[in-house]
Amino acid sequence: MNVRPRPGGKRPGPRSGGRPPRPRPKVDQARLAAYDVLRAVAAEDAYANLVLPERLRARGLEGRDAAFATELAAGTLRRQGTYDAVLSACARRPVTRIDPPVLDALRLGAHQLLSMRVPSHAAVGTTVDLVRQEVGHGPAGFVNAVLRRVAEQTLDAWVRAVAPDPGGDPRGFQVVWQSHPRWVVDALAESLGERADELDALLAADNEAPRVTLVARPGLVDREELLAVEGAEPTRWSPLGVTLGSGDPGAIEAVRRGRAAVQDEGSQLVALAALAVPLEGGHDRRWLDTCAGPGGKAALWGAEAARRGAHLLAGERAPHRAALVERAVAAVPAGVVEVVVADATDPPWGRDEFDRVVVDAPCSGLGALRRRPESRWRRTPGDVEALVPLQRALLDRAIDATRPGGLTAYVTCSPVLAETAGVVEQVLAGRNDVELLDADEVAADVLRAVPDHAGPLAGTVQLWPHRHGTDAMFLALLRRRQVVGRPSTG
Fold first, then answer.
1. What digits encode the pLDDT tens for the residues 368-385?
2. pTM of the full predicted structure?
3. Which of 25, 173, 317, 436 would you label with 83, given CA atoms 20 to 30 Å apart?
4. Per-residue pLDDT tens for 51-61?
């Protein structure tokens, strides 16, 4: 039969294309959003908790789809060490020899196969389609073959196959099973001290997705307003805290207006404890937050300063983080908080100037691995070694800025002993004008109900994800003393 070509067209046949090409598979937006996050983390050193909301909005994801994308991205990052060990075995090559965009897709597929209730055919097929769309057709066959091998065993079976023998190398087994670098496992075990038998529970808690926790900033919103949100529950110990069951906190009016905010309960507790300490002599009107970015504690302290008739100076070295502080304190009455760009190791403020000072020092962040799952893969022991001198300098200058009889609160979101007890002990050893207070005595109203919170130094506080369901916040409260002559400093 003769086929008449259309006017201006060509007769169909092998030379003019033959069969039309198959339609390109369309990858669902949730998986694309999760892949976007992994690529941003790997290629741009982005923070997953910051980039994820942007990707969800860009992909138009809400409700169950947003929750699925969140679990895909965060869960994959948390269990990355485990999946890399499995993928190396299935690919028959180290993951360092796999192209990074392909490796991120394989990790997403492994998470669906080993830790989510996604049928094997769907996990494999959608990952292969994602690679074809985002990377190219070349690696699709390799991805298909590797993930089919992953699907042959359960997570438990794979860990038994690829991890060191727990009897001969228990820490090595935990590295694979609990997906933490070896040095982090060792540092956390040391931080637990005599309770090192809790190490498995701590590592497991780092791999659990935390509930979203809000703070009702004092004087700006009543906690009851937040508890009226569907699924909201009061936190166990912070009188200002509320946990959410699901949903976008940004959809809550009080959060949109800055009267409430997302803030971990541990962060709330240490901020409240520092505000509860009675001062000696003088007044209680000049407060300082020396490392204020991104602004959570500054906003809480600022709201309380407005209630007490105090003024808060919030210093932040990085201009972009100072801008975040400005945004965080926007709902605090005008004139109560002043935000300045300043290096707290060489500050523009004077000595003996403030009644209360908080230094939430830059740290390794190993106390917040639930919320920042990529941090465990970025940090190194060298990072801690580099941070400790900075932490000592920040605490020293914060004490200088505190008047005699006033309070300096040293806070880190890390339980690592070098960053907590080590810093405080070294600063105390170099000064004769400061004493370490017993937090249970001076902040009893805040800490009385919190169990097992004793820190590595007598009188300090250490919170834990596995014990308290909070980030691993450390707090030391120090009182500046009056001395005759110039105080000695280290």
1. 999 999 999 999 999 999
2. 0.91
3. 25
4. 999 999 999 99
Domains and CATH numbers, the chain: 29-153 (1.10.940.10), 212-262 (3.30.70), 265-480 (3.40.50.150)
What is residue 164's DSSP assignment? P
The residues pairing with 241 across neighbouring beta strands, listed in sequence order, are 215
Reduce the DSSP state of residue 249 to 3 states and report it: helix
316 annotated as a binding-site residue: yes
Cβ-based burial of 92 (10 A; exposed 0-12, middle 13-18, buried ≥19)? exposed
Start-to-end Cα distance in the chain: 98
Residue 413 annotated in active site: yes
d(CA 146, CA 244): 38
Is 186 annotated to bind ligand? no
What 3-state class would DSSP assign to 433?
coil
User: What stretch of H or E contains 357?
Assistant: strand 354-360
Q: Which amino acid is at 415?
A: P
Q: Which helix (H) or strand (E) holds 19?
A: none
What sign does the dihedral 473-210-49-181 (CA atoms) show?
Answer: positive
Q: Is it true that the peptide bond before 14 is cis, omega within 30 degrees of 0?
A: no
Indicate the residue type of 27: V
Question: How many angstroms separate the CA atoms of 395 and 423, rounded?
Answer: 8
Give the 3-state secondary structure of residue 178.
coil
CA–CA gap between residue 361 and residue 380 (Å, rounded): 18
363 is in an annotated binding site: no
User: Is 295 labelled a binding residue?
Assistant: yes
Determine if residue 296 is labeled as part of a ligand binding site.
Answer: yes
Distances (CA, A) of 69 to 73, 319, 346: 6, 32, 43
Binding residue per annotation — 360?
Answer: yes
The whole-angstrom separation of Cα 21 and Cα 367 is: 52
Tokens of 137: 């057709």
Which tens digits make up the pLDDT trace of 301-335? Answer: 999 999 999 999 999 999 999 999 999 999 999 99
